[in-house]
Amino acid sequence: MREIIKLNQISKVYNHKQILDQVDLSIYEGQSIAFTGHNGSGKSTMLKIIAGLVRPSGGKVVYREKLLFHYVPERFPKMNLTAWQYLKRMGEIDGIPGKVLADRCEKLFADFFLTEMVHTPMKDLSKGTLQKIGVIQALLRRPQVLLLDEPLSGQDMDSQMVFIQKMNALRAEKVTLLMSCHEKYLVESLSDTVMAVGHGQVNEVDITAGLFAKEYILWFERQENASWPEEYRPYIQIAGKGCRARIPEHESSRMIVEMIRHGWKLRGMSDAQV
Ligand SMILES: Nc1ncnc2c1ncn2[C@@H]1O[C@H](COP(=O)(O)OP(=O)(O)OP(=O)(O)O)[C@@H](O)[C@H]1O
Predict the structure, then answer these.
(1) ABC transporter domain: which residues (predicted)?
(2) CATH 3.40.50.300 at 3-76+102-205, yes or no
């Protein structure tokens, strides 16, 4: 495999806190790396440094050739533009002819179940929908390196499947994928390399080594006037009069609090791996 990016002794300090400490890393063409680790461990910082969006405090990123990057952030700024207006402008900047752009957008909107929302201002769209628009933008013109910051954190199950399919199609075309994520099944479906980020270090780990956060299955019972907490909707499946959710351990306490706040009662909890 051909090395396309090399991180030499990369360090990053924020407010006297050492987030990355002399990290060395080689990235190869067509590689698919998942960066995993606890909240605040430095995954986003790594991606942004690789994409050239954040300057390291020390060390150097060496690009072996000119590369087209696309970066899909975890959160989008709220904008007055509609999804269609936004993508049209982005496509124009990328130099895609009008008709080709319109056809590609129409197809991708349909693939991601977004057709009904394309004329809604982006400030009124959910986090998951905005992330899908970010992914569509990245798919309009094939990048050589695609960086995705927690790409599935707000997406429903059907969209997650579409996303995995599209990403694997890109991998088949030798696009290099770098993503931060917590979901074990996403890593298993998409990545060939897993890097654990923590304590300033980035180390390759074996996906089978029990590194991933434990997951829990939670059962909730609907109380009167219960509603859905938007941010957890993607994890929830309706089950009889209640619902169940599969959720990483680090998210579970917060989800329980939110569900109770939205009128649900916790009925059970079990280890998803058992
Ligand atoms: N622009 C910034 N200014 C100051 N501190 C920052 C900045 N960006 C990130 N940090 C801090 O750096 C640390 C690493 O943040 P980062 O977003 O890279 O973590 P992460 O692993 O991606 O977390 P998460 O899983 O929660 O998204 C955190 O403590 C964060 O507060």
Answers:
(1) 5-224
(2) yes
